[in-house]
Design brief:
Elements lengths: L1 H15 L9 H13 L4 H7 L3 H34 L3 H18 L17 H32 L17
Length: about 170
């Protein structure tokens, strides 16, 4: 893309640089090409300077720029599709995509489709295993933190320390 931008910049300077001020320097020509890529048209000035090369330059730049943008979009879609084919949690991704799409449509004032969720459908085993593992890890961390807090608090208050009793109950105040 950078090579194309540089080649069109140099071509614009060579073809129109003497007659059009906005094509006289590299910086100004790059700015004009940026404006062309955003949709601003300079075809009147370009056609006035050269009736053959002007429209050819303009049309070629627009077509090449559109092809590059389409190629970029197709590349992004192919990347997303390859991710979706290898992803285990595609239901989560599609639900998130539907949420964003419906939010975007409601932002534009369009009605969004109602979604039906099947709460009765069982979750896959790997979701349950992951949830249980995460829950166990969180509970272990909470247990570790509460033990440390209890030990810290008992240092300052000897009367709250755990002492063995004759019955073996544990806590004696």
């Amino acid at each position: 893309m950078l090579v194309l931008q540089l080649s069109f910049t140099i071509g614009g300077i060579l073809i129109f640089g003497k007659d059009i001020k906005s094509f006289s320097t590299f910086k100004e020509t790059s700015y004009v090409l940026f404006e062309l890529s955003l949709g601003r048209a300079f075809e009147d000035d370009i056609t006035r300077v050269d009736s053959v090369l002007g429209p050819l330059y303009y049309a070629t730049f627009v077509l090449v720029f559109i092809c590059c943008l389409v190629n970029l979009g197709v590349g992004m879609l192919c990347n997303w599709l390859s991710y979706c084919q290898t992803s285990d949690d595609i239901e989560v991704d599609t639900a998130m995509g539907d949420y964003f799409w419906n939010s975007f449509r409601s932002l534009l004032g369009m009605r969004h489709e109602s979604q039906t969720f099947h709460d009765d459908a069982p979750l896959p085993d790997h979701y349950m295993d992951e949830t249980l593992q995460r829950t166990e890890a969180v509970l272990q961390e909470v247990d570790r933190v509460t033990d440390l807090m209890y030990k810290f608090e008992c240092r300052g208050f000897p009367e709250l320390q755990v002492k063995k009793t004759a019955s073996g109950s544990g806590l004696k105040i």
